[in-house]
Amino acid sequence: MIFSSNYILRILSSVLLLSVSGTSSVSILDNFIQCLSVYSQHSIPFSAFCTQKNTSFSSVLLSSAQNLRYLKPSVSKPEFIFTPLDESQVQAAVICSKELGIHLRVRSGGHDYEGLSYASEIETPFIIVDLAKLRSITVSIDDNSAWVQAGATNGELYYRIAEKSKIHGFPAGLCSSLGIGGHITGGAYGTMMRKYGLGADNVIDARIVDVTGRVLDRASMGEDLFWAIRGGGGASFGIILSWKIRLVPVPATVTVFTVSRTQEQNGTKLLHKWQQVADKIDENLFIRVIIQVTSTGKQKTITTSYNALFLGSVQRLLQVAQDSFPELGLTRKDCMETSWIKSVLYIAGYPTNTPPEILLQGKSLFKNYFKAKSDFVKEPIPETALEGLWKKLMEEDSPLMIMNPYGGMMSKISESEIPFPHRKGTLFMIQYLTTWQDVNEDETKHMEWIRRLYNYMGPYVSMFPRGAYVNYRDLDLGMNKKNETSFIKASAWGFRYFKDNFERLVKVKTRVDPDNFFRHEQSIPPLPLESEPEYCVA
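That's the FAD-binding PCMH-type domain-containing protein sequence above. Prediction below.
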């Protein structure tokens, strides 16, 4: 359906009344709306546009933004936020942004660690295409699959699966407010990764808007592009509209536990032992370690919390733990039998007895200012190095480290099966975080601290390249510049995130988006026409 001329005039009049001084913003929005009227199949309500002059602008921008660092007044804001109501409006947004030369960012859940879905450090003006209204989920238990639109959260997906079956699940993220569109583009790991691999390993089809505005599925996009979007990082190849995922079997009863130990309770020795067994233990058992600085009175210590899901009964879990990790000292009273959907709530940090319906809210439990980094570990970190690490953590106000175990299915899938390459030989992944709450606080000290910590850990983690997880985006590794794409410069982060798969990603990008329309600070670059990459061996 095409906009009527009266409808367009009503919208334009409203926009002009809302903006008195923002001439450029109005001009961009005017042109965008007029273009959408040509290409969209359905009429678009004025409420789908939110400009900087709208009183609701800040709340809409904040609605799913996770890292408050990128909402500070000093950070560039979008000219407006467009929230399409159907696929054709996403198509029209791509076509019109391209025709008008408007830079766009795409947001599904707002969890990009460096705010790349709602902020831009290298290119202004820009707009946001927010997929928040595209969140339908259709679960088919008969063929063990589900279609989920990009704006839905993984928590919503988990709920809808459990609504249909108590013995089906999906192996994606631990945080329940992740937008599924962007989450899977980076890999999507969770508590069942050792049993079933990543979320991206369990995608069987997709719908994507390409640079020409076409909607493509797996058959029409071809296997190269389908390969690239499952783990090759978000917003480089097109806009994900929806994923078709493979459901996996889960027991009717699973078991969860959290066991904590301090330094004074031989916490360092226990963690050293965990490093030796976590990737080799029964693949039904996922034990991550959450490391924090805690205090009793004026005395600080390091607390390591072993937070776990076991796909089975407590009786079977206790046997596995005794056989493989007796040093943990796990007891029946440490454990809780529950359903898979309630284990999702437990791992996500919700209080006991929280109803699963809270997952339908799609809201994050935690929003703060933060900086994060990541590493992959191939050899156990020596106890002496752990003791030095504890000293580093003690220097910071609110540090956090999380170690996630690999092994199991993660070791059985080839590094090149999808772009996510961190597979066999990886013992565990580390996430480093520093957080703060005060907008007026000097972030420099926190940024400098986490960089020192990262440098300290260099000798104990993967090398050549030093691996990193693309969903824990880190702009310290390097950035694209406006109007400049370089394979060599992008290699600084590309090989860390994707290893040798980076070269194939560049070739796919060059074929499907040679003019680099879909771009951001760490997007995959296309090669210049009729050129080949210059390879450097480090």
